[in-house]
User: Fold this.
Amino acid sequence: MLRRNIRLRREYLYRKSLEGKERLLYEKKRKIKEALEEGKPIPTELRNEEAALRKEIDLEDENTEVPRTHIDDEYANASERDPKILLTTSRNPSSRLTQFVKEMKIVFPNAQRMNRGGQVISEIIDTCRAHEFTDVILVHEHRGEPDGLIVCHLPFGPTAYFGLLNVVTRHDIKDKKAMGTMSEAYPRLILNNFSTKLGQRTANILKHLFPIPKPESRRIITFANQSDYISFRHHVYDKHGGPKSLELKEIGPRFELRLYQIKLGTVDQTEAQNEWVIRPYMNTAKKMKVLGD
Assistant:
């Protein structure tokens, strides 16, 4: 198993190293296509390669025209099976953090909760790879308050680091009868205002934590971005009266997420390249929106 993981990792890094060459070749072919379509002469720097490039263009189809990237590889097989998630915490979790993770286990279908104990991150990741987990979620706290969420996709990444704010668990709400029981059906997802390239990347990481719901599912999970703060809400709905009459009921928990880093690798790889990191000046630029409008 260890040799297999090493081999797969090497293949992944090799494909990633070829992306620059493939992108350069794609740009050359694009320039030749544009020149032919517009009836313009072939650019001087491409005339020696024109014959070989036109031959490759003739052999392309919709699937091979645009080069694939490591981002395509990360979730290439995501639709073939449901996500399998491991949930764990920082060491010596408080009772509040433990309660929050118990509720998050129901939020994510097919999730398993593990007591951290004395295990280090690299041991957890190796175990999850061996048992074919698709994602690992680690929840951290500060002075008994959940304050961080790490989503690590397996086997190669990416890893997204979020800050956790304004956490309200079901345990915090006094009138639990009004909220009702927490459904365990596969939820429908609402992803709102992830319009930028980074926003789409973030939405892609979040949506692949959930399997495809059944048509009759009445459970809704919402990730709504506003000013780069992602609000998480969890509802169920019931039909009352006519076909257009619905009753929406929040069943918790609720919290806000703030993305501050995406790494091109797993959480145990300290040498992994940063895809995006929040910078200090971003906090003062009030009009700057990195995830959406």
